[in-house]
Amino acid sequence: MKRFILQLGIIMIAMIMFIGCSSGDNESEDLSDDSMEEVTENEDETDEPEEEVKLNDDDYDPEDYQDLSIGETAEIQDYMVSGLHYEITLNKVESMDMIDDQEPIGDFIVLAEVTLKNLHEEETMDVRSSLSPGFGNQAPLNSVYLDEESDADLVEELNLMQGEIEPGEEITGTYLFDVEEDDEYYFAYHDKMVTFASWIVSFDEIE
After folding, report:
1. H or E element at residue 24
2. What CA–CA distance (Å, rounded) separates 150 from 132?
3. Among 109, 130, 193, 196, which one is least packed by beta carbons within 10 Å?
């Protein structure tokens, strides 16, 4: 009798262990499936293509206005829905040894004179807040002098670019840059995503 009870106990323990192992395998399979689904979802998110930059006009291509020369005009459209639309002409580039008795950090100061025409049918164009061109790797120094009342005479003398342009109107002004001497420079209008227009200026063309 005791032997029978012992055998029955062994059988019951074996059955319990078998059921426990089976349950563990199923849970492992479920966890594995969940992990695979999560990995797949992450891969799908990673593989999503970047949003394409969309310009207002399908026919407008900034590549048409790259590597221009002094005197040439570019038409520029911002890629935002309410973006700017204007023409810009680089009229001339001059140099100065110093401004108001202040010597440059680089080799000399560049004055780039441009003419801007607002082509937008409705929106007024704020020149100062909307535009910040570059000359080589340098940003313009205009804001340094436009913020000081004491520099009002200098602003007028150098005709620094400022103010607003109504639709259909145009304005001519200059941008200041502190630059190192080089054989060639790029004058460009751009933002973080698009170079809207650029001009090549050789050192010999700087007056």
Report:
1. helix 2-46
2. 23
3. 193
